[in-house]
Design goal:
With 605 residues, the chain is of the alpha+beta class. 44% of the residues lie in helices and 10% in strands. It has 24 helices and 13 strands. Helix 10 crosses helix 11 and helix 14 packs across helix 15. The protein is elongated and about 115 Å long. The two termini are 64 Å apart.
Length: 605
């Protein structure tokens, strides 16, 4: 990387002519004391870090909105003025906005501040101030202002609404006047003008301080190459965004979505895109019955997917035209994402067990285009398709279909759903299973992946998902359910078993079996609390005759003893394998009459 040095004067002359801000930049946030500290550092010859610029080719200028630097800043304002760049060379500042804006304000502009405790809507509470320097203040002496001393500021810099009054100890110059000193001759004339304002009896030593300070200001602005910058010329937005994130790593950490939202907000005509998306994310996570863990990146990627745009989460896909489309679709996108989260929450899937949020995108796309709400009603269509979605989602999550780089999988699923909806409104479960399998993404269950389901032991995030497959019910979120150890875990305490005369080898097998999927079931929360550590053979007496079949529990009562737990788990896991094979061989809603599906949806069990 080759850096170039330039003077403040030359760079300032190009601000808002060649140098502009990209929309990914945050608002200007520096306070007057920070601006003063920057000028003090420059006058002392301290380095102020390098700058990063991005040269935009003329044919790419119209792709993104570009903004001007703020010259006259009013504290609390967050919006920069949009720039018209036709016919201009455009270089965007990726790193250095705060410093360059501070230089612009201090040398050419103003800082409008509100008086302490003043009301924002009171015009008299605001003061438009410029930066001044006291030429008689010797920087080698301590400051009289303790606050400035803490900041290390020793030059006599100060923001003021009016030019401070001169006296025998103070000679004030508006810092911006140094911009007129484009040559040594002009500087000499300014020096004569300022020295002439001093009383006749001013000591020569004080005059020398004034001359040195003025000369130092002149050299800082016009002679010293204090602006060291690197210019990036690659036109890849994602490369530049990555550079921007790394360059700003020392400040507030920014995610890709933060930067994109900063860019999008300016193009969102209906208000602040940033606030709209932030509020919606908060609502999805905390405003529904279940707790979710959705982030801004997911919502923004959803905007691309649901709008039929390139699903890859890249800056180049958030063009002005695409953003207009997204904004026009925003109401429907929000409704579909909310419906999707409500639906999967009814399945009992929340932030604790949702292993991939990207698996929700095909569901959201389907709901967006069928415009049937959240399938939360009791019609045959709603009940059947909710069940299809539930089964497909479980297969996707358990098989890691959307793990790793899933853009191609998302695109494939979207295309399959798009084609299927041309002829029918049902969720295309079979088409998705077959289409994704053809691309190496398996959502069904066969001999190659059934054992992976059985490995979802107690405590793993996939445990609830795997157990959900064992039941015809899909509305696990309607009422609280617990994962229960069929043979109570409390009965497998090694010391208790040892006292019962069981061998160490048998105890080890029992302990290894207690948390396996074959010893787990889903129970209503109150049922699980009632069951507690009651031996299964005793507790089952209070259940109905269909309980064993419903929970795939071996009917051989001899296996219900804790000493037979390994054999019990082996037998039950074979029943589970059979269940999963059957699910793969028939449509997801086969084996249950439509009226039963509707009845289950109404009952919520």
């Amino acid at each position: 990387m080759s850096y170039v040095s330039s003077t403040i004067g030359r760079v300032l002359d190009q601000i808002n002519r060649t140098y502009f801000l990209p929309a990914i930049q945050r608002p200007f946030v520096w306070q007057p004391d920070q601006i003063i500290a920057l000028f003090d550092s420059l006058l002392k010859g301290y380095p102020i870090s390098s700058f990063l610029f991005w040269e935009i080719k003329p044919d790419r200028r119209s792709d993104w909105e570009i903004y001007k630097f703020i010259e006259n800043f009013r504290f609390g304002d967050t919006h920069n003025e949009m720039a018209e760049t036709d016919g201009r060379d455009v270089v965007l500042v990726l790193d250095g906005q705060q410093r360059l804006t501070s230089l612009l304000i201090g040398l050419r502009g103003t800082f409008t501040a509100r008086a302490k405790h003043g009301r924002r809507n009171n015009p008299d509470a605001w003061s438009r101030q410029r930066l001044y320097i006291d030429l008689l203040k010797d920087p080698s002496t301590e400051s009289e202002d303790s606050g400035r001393e803490e900041l290390g500021v020793t030059y006599g810099l100060r923001f003021s609404e009016q030019e401070p009054k001169n006296d025998p100890d103070h000679l004030w110059l508006k810092v911006g006047r140094i911009l007129d000193c484009t040559s040594d001759d002009v500087l000499d004339r300014l020096a004569d003008e300022m020295l002439a304002k001093l009383p006749p009896d001013t000591p020569r030593s004080m005059k020398r301080v004034a001359e040195r300070n003025l000369d130092r200001l002149y050299r800082t602005v016009w002679k010293d190459g204090v602006i060291a910058y690197y210019t990036e010329k690659d036109q890849s937005y994602d490369r530049v965004l990555d550079i921007f994130i790394r360059a700003n790593d020392g400040g507030t950490k920014l995610s890709k979505s933060d930067l994109l939202l900063s860019m999008i907000t300016s193009k969102w005509e209906g208000g602040s895109a940033r606030q709209a998306i932030y509020d919606f994310v908060d609502f999805l996570n905390d405003g529904l019955e279940a707790r979710n863990e959705i982030d801004k990146d997911f919502v923004m990627k959803s905007c691309l997917v649901l709008s039929g745009l390139d699903q890859r989460y890249k800056v180049q896909n958030f063009t002005t035209a695409n953003l207009k489309l997204i904004e026009s679709n925003w109401r429907g996108i929000k409704a579909s994402l909310e419906a999707t989260l409500r639906l999967v929450n009814r399945f009992g899937i929340d932030r604790e067990v949702l292993t991939s949020v990207n698996a929700l995108l095909p569901i959201a796309y389907y709901l967006y285009h069928v415009e049937r709400g959240g399938l939360d009603g009791s019609t045959q269509f709603e009940a059947t398709n909710a069940k299809r979605i539930h089964h497909w989602l479980l297969g996707s999550l358990l098989n890691g279909v959307f793990s790793g780089s899933s853009d191609q999988t998302i695109g494939t699923a979207r295309s399959i759903i798009h084609e299927a909806l041309k002829t029918e409104q049902d969720f295309p479960y079979r088409s998705l299973v077959q289409g994704l399998a053809a691309r190496g993404r398996v959502t069904a269950f066969d001999e190659n992946n059934i054992e992976g389901v059985l490995d979802a032991s107690y405590g793993k995030r996939t445990c609830f998902l795997a157990l959900s497959l064992l039941y015809d019910s899909h509305l696990w979120g309607a009422t609280p359910h617990h994962i229960d150890h069929i043979i109570p875990r409390s009965l497998t305490d090694p010391k208790t078993l040892q006292r019962a005369g069981i061998s160490a080898e048998a105890i080890a097998d029992i302990v290894d079996s207690v948390n396996r999927l074959g010893n787990l079931q889903l129970l209503l929360g109150r049922e699980n609390l009632e069951k507690s550590n009651i031996p299964f053979a005793e507790w089952i007496q209070s259940r109905d005759n269909e309980f064993l079949d419903r929970h795939l529990i071996p009917t051989n009562r001899a296996l219900w003893e804790v000493t037979e737990l390994p054999k019990f788990v082996e037998a039950r896991e074979e029943l589970i394998r059979g269940r999963l094979r059957r699910l793969n061989l028939r449509p997801v809603d086969d084996g249950m009459p439509p009226n039963q599906i509707v009845k289950e949806a109404v009952a919520g069990n």
